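This entry is listed below:
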Amino acid sequence: MKKKILLIDDDAIPMAPYKTALEKSDFIVTAIADVDKALEIARDSLERFDIVLLDVMMPPGNAFDLGETDDGMRTGVFLYGELRKHYHEAWIIVLTNMRDGVTLDMFPTKEDRQLRVVLKYKYPPFEIVELIKGLLK
């Protein structure tokens, strides 16, 4: 059975190679560029995903307060919390260009064994495919 991936990133053009690489590796990829749509999908009990790829810096949509997300710089932190409520068993991979240690430390990597935080420049599309294959073994 093909594994399903939810890719959440508001910047579709740079993420297109990731989507293509994942699909060529036989994953089913649903790409979402909108936080509110991502939450809608997560709340839909029929949509299950094995992996969620999540960006950090995104517009907060209607779901989150612009101030609490630091003008969108930390939207992914809040979105992660909501996604984990719905995807208990899924791997969540935070894939970001952000190098702000304060923000990245907000992700509970020690407590959540199904969470990885990786930098995009260190994980081009083929590396993400290999990471995901390793996690799903």
Observations:
- The longest helix spans residues 12-24.
- Residues 4-135 form a domain with the Rossmann fold fold (CATH 3.40.50.2300).
